[in-house]
């Protein structure tokens, strides 16, 4: 059985884990060419995250290899369309 993909950003990320979520943004459909991106920033650095289209939704996947490079600590999450 496949686990459901969450529909909201995670409250926390464990380094070395693969993270996925899917967003529906009615006025900014991926099917209409809109893209969703994020930037995580803390005092040690920043990480840019992009989405891919999944029908009209925006699918975000961060690989385990990518999260393994995340610095410990609290981050601020910025969202862009």
Descriptive account of the structure:
The protein has 81 residues and is mainly beta. 5% of the residues lie in helices and 40% in strands. It has one helix and five strands, in the order ββββαβ. The chain has one helix spanning 64-67, and strands at residues 19-23, 37-42, 45-54, 57-62, 76-80. The chain has a five-stranded antiparallel sheet. The chain is globular, with a radius of gyration of 13 Å. The chain starts with 18 loop residues before the first strand and ends with a strand. The mean pLDDT is 93.
Short characterization:
Helix content is 5%, strand content 40%. It has 81 residues and is mainly beta. It has a 5-stranded antiparallel beta sheet with strand order 1-4-3-2-5.
Question: Which tags fit this structure?
Answer:
81 residues, mainly beta, 5-stranded antiparallel β-sheet, 1 helix, globular
User: What structural class should be given to the helix and strand makeup?
Assistant: mainly beta
Let me know the number of strands. Answer: 5
Q: SSE string, helix = H, strand = E? A: EEEEHE
Widest β-sheet, arrangement of strands: 1-4-3-2-5
- The coarse overall form would be globular
Low-confidence stretches: none
Q: Please, how many helices?
A: 1
- Percent of residues in beta strands? 35-45%
Q: How much helicity do the residues have? A: under 10%
What is the mean predicted local confidence, pLDDT? 93
**First-residue to last-residue Cα separation:** 33 Å
Biggest sheet descriptor: 5 strands, antiparallel
Kindly provide the radius of gyration, computed on alpha-carbon positions and rounded to a whole number of angstroms: 13 Å
């Amino acid at each position: 059985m496949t686990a459901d993909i969450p529909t909201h950003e995670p409250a926390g990320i464990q380094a070395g884990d693969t993270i996925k979520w899917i967003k529906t943004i009615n006025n900014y459909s991926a099917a209409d060419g809109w893209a969703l991106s994020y930037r995580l920033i803390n005092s040690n650095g920043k990480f840019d995250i992009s989405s891919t289209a999944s029908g009209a939704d925006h699918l975000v996947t961060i690989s385990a290899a990518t999260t393994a490079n995340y610095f410990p600590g609290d981050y601020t999450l910025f969202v862009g369309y």
